[in-house]
Target: UDP-glucose 6-dehydrogenase
Amino acid sequence: HGRVQNICCIGAGYVGGPTCAVIANKNPHLKVTVVDLSQPRIDAWNSPHLPIYEPGLQEIVELARDGSADRKPNLFFSTDVDAAIAEADLVFVSVNTPTKVSGTGAGFASELSYVESAIRKIAEVATTDKIVVEKSTVPVRTADSMREILSAIGKPGVRFEVLSNPEFLAEGTAIPDLLTPDRILIGSLVNESGLSAASALANVYAGWVPRDRIITMNLWSSELAKLAANALLAQRISSINALSAICEATGADVEEIAFACGTDTRIGSKMLRASVGFGGSCFKKDILSLTYISETLHLPEVAAYWRSVVDINEYQKDRFTNRIITCLYNSLTNKKIAVLGFSYKKDTGDTRESAAISIIKNLAGERAKISIYDPKVEERQIWQDLQGYGNVSSVAGAGSVKDFVTVENNVYDACADAHAIIILTEWDEFSNKAIAKPTAAQANKPTNGHASTNPRMDWSRVADTMKRPMFVFDGRNVVDARALEELGFRVECIGKPGTNWAKERMLQAQTGKGASPV
Ligand code: NAD
Ligand code: UDX
Model:
């Protein structure tokens, strides 16, 4: 398969767009064309307003897409799928693989129809040999089906080689993740043609990634490694979240637990932040896919094990809502609740599987008046998510979602007259903690100067406008609770004893009537 000169990527989403922008940026000699069926998405990629928000993305796209004095444009976005496939030597398939919503495996298995239609398109259009690369996250052995379809439909004499090259970027940090990846994984058949294709793809990454970080292995290991990595990462979050429940009941502090355990180098400190529950388009979907694969392989115990990671996550979201209801005297009817943050994590406008969606649905069921502020999520996206989520309006017994939800474009309007503030995304602007001086490495990380630099909110200004008693439920442990208590807030954090609890304990200590905490 020799050297790659012309790349096509099918799917201009959160993965296809940023990944190809970096590939093009770092390989000025390559022509990279990203195609999609969605005309509005492609138009946005060709405009100054990219369809996704990702710190550092804009500059990377603009340099490759628009060129400069000393480089020609080499990144193109188009809806002409056929033309881009026809001229490519290597085609990334980076389409969505969501959880199936109906039919066999509904609610667990991956929906592979988008992958299959992309593969059929490649087979129909190709008149020259192609390396076809699975970039989408797929069930183990999907490459088998791809090879079969390609050879059944492909024109005589046209050869296809299928590689697996899963993507490990996380949203919000996609650009630094792509620029300095922990590893690039390439899976191929272990024969001459498979290895030669793998080496051609490795050469593309070698444009900026050190060779020792480019790992090659067999196809099936590579496919399964992607599901495994996400399952292991999500499992850590469910583990710390399960511990957070024990902390809340005993007076231990989950941040101290994470620190104490994370300093053990065998455990490591990352992905141990207790939270209101993980969200995002990948973790839940990929664990459910792994669960389904285990079931189809007749491994019910294995399926139950992975399934429990998702179960704990659902439990964590419900537990948080229940704590809010209990603290607000078991009635939310007509109480204004300010929700700060709607995206599933900071530094992204993506809301897929955001914990905010199910928590707002729960609060709506209690007939609260919810007022939402998020620095990056577009208002129409919020309406779409709330409408689409099990029909919130019928849960609330109100006419329309707009009868009990408002979307504000600043934190102060969201919080005015509220009984409680609920922090659901860890955006920096919600924090009142002392700002840590950035390390040299952090200071050098690219940012595009948007949301991450929004000023911190003024908590004392908010306090002046709220109903008494004022509550803060911090689903991300971004606030310094003691400082807020000095302003008169009652603060409840994940995995820490609440204000009431702390006062009760103090009283018990003073009167000597200490009871066992459990
Ligand atoms: P996405 O929904 O943002 O983008 C997918 C794009 O593919 C959409 O724009 C859609 O219109 C397009 N598409 C679908 N079928 C098509 C076809 N036949 N022809 C042309 N275009 C088509 O999805 P994403 O978040 O970029 O995820 C893509 C894949 O990467 C998924 O398998 C996902 O699991 C995996 N992944 C995602 C992330 C992440 O952070 N989002 C990280 C790693 C891996
Ligand atoms: C994840 C994987 O990290 C990435 O490698 C893969 O390619 C795609 O899926 P992403 O979902 O974008 O990336 O973000 P991630 O940072 O992993 O966070 C996922 C969710 O877990 C978010 O809701 C985040 O807030 C939450 N989280 C993360 C925690 O609750 N605690 C943590 O310690 C880390």
User: Anything to note?
Assistant: The radius of gyration is 25 Å.
